[in-house]
Specification:
Layout (H helix, E strand, L loop, with lengths): L1 H10 L6 H11 L1 H6 L3 E4 L11 H18 E13 L2 E12 L3 H14 L3 E6 L5 E8 L6
Parallel strand pairs: 1-2
Antiparallel strand pairs: 2-3, 3-5, 4-5
Helix pairs in contact: 2-4, 4-5
């Protein structure tokens, strides 16, 4: 019985970590980030696992990151995440020029997050810096 569990654990592919998922999404939008002269830093812990639907989280993060990369210019964009109990907070902070259309376009990502039980909030400073937070319940079966 124990041998079968070991074999299953070796042959069953593990879900990617949030760090790996974010790296994949950054790579997909790399051309846009380069075009806008943005420098992206993925500071999400390498071992942070997503217990809820990875497809749902990936979909929301994809829309969120693409929108930020599109509206940021000459920016350093720092992506980080923290766990608070059963909740994960992904924080995307831009230090550079942000176009005024960012809040409106984030509405689409926000709606996607809301439909899956999460939330996206944004703060834009007068200096042009922006901070976007995506919070979701990280438990199997959520959403």
């Amino acid at each position: 019985m124990q041998i079968q569990q070991v074999i299953n654990s070796l042959t069953t592919p593990k879900d990617p970590t949030l760090h790996e998922l974010t790296n994949d999404l950054i790579q997909e939008s790399a051309a846009l980030a380069i075009l806008n002269r943005n420098y992206i830093v993925n500071n999400i812990p390498a071992d942070l696992r997503v217990e809820t639907s990875g497809v749902m989280v990936s979909s929301v993060l994809d829309k969120l990151l693409y929108t930020v990369f599109r509206h940021a210019q000459n920016s350093v964009i720092l992506i980080s995440a923290r766990v608070y109990g059963m909740t994960i907070l992904v924080h995307v902070k831009s230090k550079g020029t942000i176009s005024p259309g960012l809040p409106e376009e984030l509405g689409h990502a926000s709606l996607k997050a809301k439909n899956s039980g999460g939330i996206i909030e944004m703060i834009q400073c007068e200096s042009g810096h922006a901070s976007v937070a995506y919070c979701f319940l990280n438990e199997a079966g959520a959403a």
